[in-house]
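Page 37, continued from 36.
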């Protein structure tokens, strides 16, 4: 196992689980059980071992088990590090690494994660916000400091937006904020471009059953400092900043067909997403092996595609956690996987592993 392997997970009063624990041995993990047993909740707990709001983008208070609402806690061991994250009542989420309090952004330096969940199936046809999040998660997996760059940009941008809404016209206020935004925006753009180059290289070098997706970032304006200075009145009328990396979009094309992903069939869009997740993991393998979270992915692939996916996962230097309703969905990978059955009994999670 690598020094980034997730070896144990313990959760308390998290979502449907009053208490649950798992140990991992580095093999792919297939978690199965009836709908409502709490399979996705386990993946969500793992996703909170990275910065942000997890794979369902939930508010911190929503993680607490009801009706107790006592707060929640996640504890994990990763490559010799002990990670704890928790919240009590309405307080913000806290993080501790090896017993020391630390900001969430430090988590991205311990464990790289990529994930695919059913809510992402409409990624290519919905609003650009979701695609930016997808792009930034992908980027952060390659460059952990990207999280700090995004925060360094968002804070002065929110302050600039407040000035715009209040009708402040003093250029001195804007100049200072826009200088901070420019420096952070340059880092964000540089990191995103690096991520797309890494993904493209991983796709070029791969033998895969999934289609290649060519990626392009649109809305990357040049000379933002001058642009923001020139558009303050228009931004004031809108009440927000209309240009910058927070307005960029990720465009995907099914390479073999030269067809925009938004115009592809539902099955093709899913296959493109799977291809990108695999490329992301492939690009990280060997240097920073990631944890791959795949929620209900098998249910949306035919038998041949499932077998192809499992073959590629087994070939990767990565740790995979998957969910499904029954063991039959994992029949071709079961001999090489850690099979975990989850049920609920008397409000306690009962987890069996083999």
């Amino acid at each position: 196992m690598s020094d980034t392997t997730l070896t144990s997970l313990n959760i308390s009063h998290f979502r449907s689980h009053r208490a649950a624990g798992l140990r991992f041995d580095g093999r792919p993990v297939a978690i199965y059980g009836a709908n409502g047993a709490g399979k996705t909740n386990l993946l969500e707990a793992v996703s909170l071992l990275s910065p942000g709001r997890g794979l369902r983008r939930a508010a911190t208070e929503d993680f607490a088990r009801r009706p107790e609402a006592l707060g929640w806690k996640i504890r994990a061991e990763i490559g010799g590090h002990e990670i704890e994250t928790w919240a009590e009542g309405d307080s913000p989420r806290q993080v501790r690494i090896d017993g020391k309090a630390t900001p969430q952004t430090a988590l991205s330096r311990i464990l790289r994660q990529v994930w695919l969940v059913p809510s992402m199936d409409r990624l290519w046809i919905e609003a650009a916000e979701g695609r930016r999040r997808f792009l930034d998660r992908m980027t952060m997996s390659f460059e952990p400091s990207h999280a700090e760059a995004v925060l360094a940009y968002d804070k002065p941008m929110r302050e600039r937006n407040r000035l715009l809404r209040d009708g402040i016209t003093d250029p001195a206020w804007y100049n200072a904020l826009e200088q901070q935004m420019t420096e952070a925006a340059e880092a964000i753009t540089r990191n995103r471009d690096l991520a797309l180059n890494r993904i493209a290289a991983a796709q070029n070098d791969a033998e895969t059953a999934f289609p290649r997706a060519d990626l392009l970032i649109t809305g990357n304006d040049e000379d933002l400092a001058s642009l923001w200075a020139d558009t303050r009145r228009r931004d004031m009328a809108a009440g927000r900043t209309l240009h910058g990396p927070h307005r960029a979009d990720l465009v995907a094309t099914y390479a073999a067909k030269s067809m925009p992903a938004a115009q592809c069939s539902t099955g093709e869009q899913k296959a493109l997403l799977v291809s990108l997740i695999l490329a992301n993991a492939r690009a990280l393998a060997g240097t920073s092996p990631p944890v791959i979270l795949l929620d209900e992915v098998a249910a949306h692939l035919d038998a041949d595609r499932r077998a192809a996916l499992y073959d590629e996962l087994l070939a990767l230097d990565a740790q995979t956690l998957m969910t499904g309703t029954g063991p039959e969905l994992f029949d071709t990978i079961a001999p090489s996987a850690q099979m975990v059955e989850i049920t609920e009994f008397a409000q306690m999670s009962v987890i069996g592993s083999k």
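The longest strand covers residues 6-14. Flag for discussion at group meeting. Residues 345-350 have pLDDT under 50 and may be disordered.
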